């Protein structure tokens, strides 16, 4: 684009005696034209814009790979790829990751990248060879990321549409350890038994993409959809088990954690949070959860959407327990 800078106090003389407009400094970029107003129309915001434009470099460099002292190609921001623990020893990208590396990002030999295994290990690697559907890597340096101090399990009733995809994405970013999709009585979406593995695979891929984008090195364990009754009957033991509730007996997060600290002298290292579907859990399901030791919690006076409630609860747990 072409940016035309009009400076109110320019030292340049007017182009002629009849032209009283201030001098214009022109910076050429491909695309649109921006011309700030003349001084008699200028506002404080316009002055700020003028100062910002005046500080722009008139010549920009196109981002591209540079070379370090060893001759390796280095990008300003290295791309992240997922390599399952089972294939970690071979250090070879395959299938979708290899396609994304070669055909989408156009990386070539000696390009650097970051590879993680979803279990806390991350390594900086370079491409050694590129074959059809396979990219062989060489590890340069590795590091280990410890798990968050509190392992949080999200038992989420599957909402309709693509809202579950958003929940899985945000839960991964917030460091959830386990995600249990629930098919409650009021769940609109019903997953057939034969379709459950495909659903799980889809959510696992969403979690991988979220981890690649945000720098998360731990992936949540995602199980196949199940019913609240089956989950509560076989659920693991948690130091704190919670269920989001709209009932009058629901308590606040702070009160529950304060009581736990008073009794045990520490914060919990494992926690479960149950989030209901549109319309909440049925009274029978809520009663079953309470019988299993889940404490009803309130999310405030506003009734939140299911996906909003999940993100809200996970954010509070991350703040209070991690």
What's the N-to-C terminus distance? 47 Å
- What shape does the CA trace take? elongated
> How many individual domains?
3
Main sheet strand line-up: 13-12-11-15-14-16
Total of DSSP H or I helical runs spanning 4+ residues:
8
Poorly predicted parts: 5-12, 22-34, 57-75
Q: Give me the secondary-structure category.
A: alpha/beta
CATH architecture of the largest domain: 3-Layer(aba) Sandwich
Number of strands: 16
What profile does the largest beta sheet have? Answer: 6 strands, parallel
CATH class descriptor of the largest domain: Alpha Beta
Structure commentary:
This protein is of the alpha/beta class and 322 residues long. It folds into 3 domains: 2-54, no CATH class; 66-144, Ribosomal Protein L25, Chain P (Beta Barrel), CATH 2.40.240; 151-321, SPOUT methyltransferase, trefoil knot domain (Alpha/beta knot, 3-Layer(aba) Sandwich), CATH 3.40.1280.10. It contains 8 helices and 16 strands. The protein has helices at 44-54, 95-104, 163-173, 196-214, 228-234, 253-264, 283-291, 306-321; strands at 2-6, 24-28, 33-34, 66-67, 73-74, 80-82, 92-94, 112-116, 121-131, 134-144, 151-157, 178-182, 221-222, 240-244, 270-275, 295-297. It has a 6-stranded parallel beta sheet, with helices on both faces. A 5-stranded mixed beta sheet has the order 6-8-9-10-7. Helix 3 (163-173) packs parallel to helix 8. Mean pLDDT is 82; it is low at 5-12, 22-34 and 57-75.
């Amino acid at each position: 684009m072409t940016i035309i800078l009009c400076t109110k106090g320019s030292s340049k003389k007017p182009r002629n005696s009849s032209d009283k407009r201030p001098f214009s400094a022109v910076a050429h970029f491909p695309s649109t034209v921006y011309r700030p107003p003349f001084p008699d129309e200028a506002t404080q915001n316009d002055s700020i814009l003028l100062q910002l434009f005046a500080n722009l470099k008139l010549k920009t460099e196109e981002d591209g790979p540079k070379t370090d002292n060893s001759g390796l190609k280095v990008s300003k921001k290295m791309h992240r790829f997922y390599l399952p623990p089972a294939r970690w020893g071979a250090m070879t990208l395959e299938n979708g990751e290899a396609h994304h590396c070669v055909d989408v990002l156009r990386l070539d030999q000696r390009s650097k990248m970051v590879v993680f295994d979803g279990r806390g290990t991350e390594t900086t690697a370079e491409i050694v060879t590129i074959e059809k559907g396979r990219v062989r890597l060489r590890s340069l340096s590795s590091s280990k990321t410890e798990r968050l101090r509190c392992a949080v399990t999200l038992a989420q009733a599957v909402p309709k549409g693509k809202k579950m995809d958003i929940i899985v994405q945000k839960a991964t970013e917030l460091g959830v350890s386990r995600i249990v999709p629930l098919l409650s009585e009021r769940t609109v979406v019903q997953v057939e038994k034969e379709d459950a593995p495909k659903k799980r695979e889809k959510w696992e891929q969403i979690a991988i993409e979220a981890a690649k984008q945000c720098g998360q090195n731990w992936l949540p364990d995602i199980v196949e959809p199940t019913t609240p009754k089956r989950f509560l009957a076989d659920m693991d033991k948690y130091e704190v088990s919670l269920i989001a509730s709209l009932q009058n007996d629901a308590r606040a997060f702070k009160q529950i954690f304060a009581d736990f600290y008073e009794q045990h002298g520490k914060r919990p290292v494992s926690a479960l949070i149950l989030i209901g579907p549109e319309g909440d859990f049925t009274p029978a399901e809520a009663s079953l959860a309470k019988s299993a030791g889940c404490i009803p919690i309130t999310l405030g006076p506003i009734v939140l959407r299911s996906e909003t409630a999940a993100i809200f609860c996970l954010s509070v747990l991350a703040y209070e327990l991690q």
